[in-house]
Amino acid sequence: MATTADFRNGLCIEYNNDLYAIVEFQHVKPGKGPAFVRTKLKSITTGKVIDNTFTSGHKVTTARIERRDFQYLYKDDLGYHMMDSNTFEQISLEEHLIENSDLIKDGQGLEVLVHAEEEKIIGCELPAFVTLEVTYTEPGIKGDTATNATKPATLETGAEIQVPLFVNQGDVLKIDTRSRSYVERVKQ
Asked: Where in the chain are the domains?
């Protein structure tokens, strides 16, 4: 159990029969009336963000979420197969538990979120940035880069993202997995 005084960004709590992470919070002491805490909560299971207000001193149940290192092996009709980097135990995850699953490359390291009390897997997070090779894109035309124009590009994992016009087939790109956006070209 914790109170609103223990709130911090990233704290996981049980609220309305779901697990929520505190995205941001603000203690408010109005001139008239009791103090309260205004929060923005993100559901760990669905990803939905809600606003909620707790009265100051309100007790909440905290949830212990562990991040475990896994390595992605392969995908088949049963799901995404991964291996625990410490115990070498293999698990299979369904696609809805992995956000931007089309940016995962074989052998890539991932973090699996586990509800520690129940030993239940609640999600999987990719690293913030991945490097992937462009397998297909239309060739850029010289002198056509004066504006911030983009074009679609297919990556080695099959994902399609928007890239600047100067990117060519065979280039290796650094991709932000949270926004699915191009960051920079990587020199080989």
From this structure: 2-62, 65-125, 129-186
